[in-house]
User: What shape does this take?
Amino acid sequence: MTNKTTKKHLSRFRPVDHAAVAFDGGFWKSWKDTVRTVTIPTQHKRLEEEGFLEVLDFEKPPGPLARPIQPSGLSMQHFFDSDFGKWIEAASYTLKQNPDGKLETQIDAIVEKLEQGQMEDGYLHSWFIRREPENRWTNLRDLHEMYSMGHLLEGAIAYFEATGKRRFLDVMIRAMDHIAATFGREGGKLRGYGAHAEIELALVKLYRVTGEDRFLKLGTYLVEERGQQPSYYDEEARKRGEDPADYVYKTYAYSQAHAPVREQPDVAGHAVRAMYFYCAVADLAYENDDPTLKAVCDRFFDDLTGDKLYVTGGIGPSAENEGFTRPFDLPNESAYAETCAAVSLGFWSHRMAQIDLDARYTDQLETVLFNGALSGISRDGEHYFYENVLESHGQNRRWKWHYCPCCPTNIARFITSLGQYFYTVKDDAVAVHLYGENAADLNVGETFLRLKQSTAYPWEGDIAISLGLEAPSEFTLFLRVPGWCEGAEISVNGAPVDLDTVVSKGYAALKRHWQDGDSIRIHLPMPVERLYAHPAVSANAGRVSLKRGPVVYCVEEADIGIEPQLLRLPRDVALEPRFDGEFLGGAVLLEANARAAEMSGPIYRKKAAKTAEKAITAIPYHLWANREAGGMQVWLAEEV
Amino acid sequence: MTNKTTKKHLSRFRPVDHAAVAFDGGFWKSWKDTVRTVTIPTQHKRLEEEGFLEVLDFEKPPGPLARPIQPSGLSMQHFFDSDFGKWIEAASYTLKQNPDGKLETQIDAIVEKLEQGQMEDGYLHSWFIRREPENRWTNLRDLHEMYSMGHLLEGAIAYFEATGKRRFLDVMIRAMDHIAATFGREGGKLRGYGAHAEIELALVKLYRVTGEDRFLKLGTYLVEERGQQPSYYDEEARKRGEDPADYVYKTYAYSQAHAPVREQPDVAGHAVRAMYFYCAVADLAYENDDPTLKAVCDRFFDDLTGDKLYVTGGIGPSAENEGFTRPFDLPNESAYAETCAAVSLGFWSHRMAQIDLDARYTDQLETVLFNGALSGISRDGEHYFYENVLESHGQNRRWKWHYCPCCPTNIARFITSLGQYFYTVKDDAVAVHLYGENAADLNVGETFLRLKQSTAYPWEGDIAISLGLEAPSEFTLFLRVPGWCEGAEISVNGAPVDLDTVVSKGYAALKRHWQDGDSIRIHLPMPVERLYAHPAVSANAGRVSLKRGPVVYCVEEADIGIEPQLLRLPRDVALEPRFDGEFLGGAVLLEANARAAEMSGPIYRKKAAKTAEKAITAIPYHLWANREAGGMQVWLAEEV
Assistant: This one.
């Protein structure tokens, strides 16, 4: 018999404090600076300008709706709480590294209103409290009460961790206790769960911050109850006097509530709901050391990365359900690929790597970070994409604020807490997941480690890592060897490491007595790669995408003067990388002698269009749409 | 000085009576038989089952809405009148060739109710009469009063012509006189016009049937007033207390009402509205012998066929506005390409060829007839497509009836009146536009001509034409040489005609003293053609479509057992036509040794997928989706 109390099933690496990782140069410094100095303040301004914060004026009668009711019965205004919740979270991450009295005051003002508005029993949702308190908790299927409270809770935790102030955290603990008193399998409670997952992962965070089991228990209930039959949503609809068959999205797979999670065969439904939910599933696998839940996650991860993933890391091709469709349905121009979905794929990948140190997860984290998530914010830090298309004819432009502005605060909290994604630790190990200039203060068991990366990554593949230790210490340093890389080289203090013997699941395990001043050099060759799609991706037949290192490229009309759709890239033409320090903060661009088809002739003809030589420049996908409007294409037609 | 009263500007060929053309064999016989014996009766059944005819129970209080109100303020139920109007029209066309007492009784029952419901002043629209008479004529922008009356009028004319019964016609004349009394440029009248064009072309028909100038005058007013500034729709919205800026479709181009027709630069907006409108513009050019209006039509025709046309003749790629977008935006899988739009492109092309005998118009008529319009009805005659996509992964299936069932009756009236599209006449000429087995009784001036085509067209390109004449007669026989055809040959009584000397604008002009028994043989070579799209059609880069004669082909999963998206067609592979008499009533299929990509491997890879030989069968596009569900593709990827 195995001893269940001690047997470890899963490798459990802990996330590190994002604030322990300083980005004082390199690729991420300018992004983090921009988000802190431009994005966070302008987002607060938008929240004010657009009336989001007015929903907290509990003493006033509610004004006219800022957003009309949708066919689903939902108004976007219904989840305004979530937007400032996420903004507080993102702002708090910056606060922890860069104290800012004005910002704290802004957050405190929101917290004060939330506290004033909170109902006596702990319920907290501005819409219902002000507009229809009698209808609270009557429509978990379509409305977003738990979702909004989950985002407020994440904000409260981040603010507590940044400032030590408990007020917001206590408000949200009361709200969580109210939920626990209302929902559960015990007699007298409702067996409900919010349709848009979010609170589940927030509850695991709360458990980790407070150490209180009841929050983990509540999160576990919410994850495991989802999709149980008969459906709570059917029952709830009938209570409202509605026919469950009238559900606007037709299937509860929209909210991953069509079956209990362990029985769900594949990735389905609304992409952000799916990702947030899978994050919580992975968190519970971690906390309960439960390989069966991890296997469920892997089933989803295999499905997602096998046939439902854009090359940029974007996910969820369809606007109709903001989510998944059939395998290999990955249209370029109509790609929905919501910024939030890519960001939350990053969240999930990060969690998967905590329970199983495998680069197949962190490869996706890196992909979204440099491509499908980062594309969601402009270089100036105050314009956004909701959809991240892979082809445009100039109609897709970034906006200052969105009708449903979930994405701006999501990309903000991703970047402001970026450090946590670079490293995870165990008592005897540290794992390096991402490369980029930074210096991290890490605790590896009892050992304090200052790990410094010097590198021009992702523009170059050479990384120098130096270790600062107070005393020599034995631990394993895991270094990710990206899945995109062939011919990686690693040396320690000048001595080459035989990667064949130390690399497992995409990580080189360097176990030794590390000394202060030890240095590691990593060389990741970065030739320009042509990537082809699976032939079942109809949109990409005869097309090729370009990638160098972790960065996916595109061709934008601004650089070539014609619609990139006219280009034909001969298969054998060379693509030359060139660093351009003036290009939108500096980037490696790719140059090639491609061919362009003539813009003439009838719409249908017996011979394919003639082409002529055309010099092209490809730019990193995440930097597109920062200049004048025009066409863009990730998947270029190859010349026959 | 030119004498304006006698100078002829436009070549004016008159349409012929559809009933004078008998299809007793060949391609169209089975389609016409199916539509008469299956489609017309089942459509009446659907109109009953679905409550369409209940809107005429004027003595009863109106029941609950069969279709909810849309964001535009419109319910589909609002134009139910148009659906039975079109059904009566289609049914009447069959009546004229095949008298049917039961069918007449069904139509008379509808007519009786319409007459009973008609308001004293002639107004006739079931929705407003029963539900909100006080609001009639208050929202021409969004609602469909004139549109519905136009379809009823077309139905009334067809029924009058089939049976000689005037009752319905008189009802509709009263309705038209009411409109003329209400709308116009004279003082005291409203300067309105219906947003969905239709009544304009119906009024020209009414003018031709009655000879009454006032109907032509009303039609002319409605065409010329459309888009005049300041906009009537703005004024009307303000009268309703609305802000014109809230218009749900944003631009009046949606209804071709953004500018006066003569100032409109290009094809824009809702595709069916555009086509119906252009039909009326062409009709007015005809009636007024007005080359300036014809030039306007040509501007639209050039634009449409230059950069906004699917290879199938489908038009209007976008579901959002059911219409046109930017040039070369022709996605395959999301193609809207409404059946009604293709049908009405047929109507317009036919009208253009009346004012200018040019095969560039009738080539489009033929294209929609064999492809993008005919695809809208199943081989069994009782299932339909609304959208006619050019690529499917099995999700597109034909339906018995539609939420907005405008298409079934449209394709029905096209096929039931098909004869009129085959020929047009003048006093000294007859033009043969279409080929197919049929016998037509035509009046060429004073001469009675029986023209008989014997042919397996479109499956074969040989057509034998015999002429029956009571006496020898001089006239010009114009024979269309299709634009798709190279190497056409024509002989008269065995003597070859030198086409170089007689062909102009795609028609061979054979002017001679024709004798009874003269015979003509036409040989139109029909090799299988590969057609490439303009390179700016991004969806078709690296792809090829297949066409033989007028018939566009597709590959359907039902024939090849794999998704056609996996196919790669080598450029030099032969495509062999083979007639299969068992295939859905008989058709020429194409066979080839293509290649298929392996359905394996990662979603992104450094080498394009391997392919292996795969025998394929391509079928006529119009016959797809008549068997089990599966993928379909018109534009096949070529192998690099």
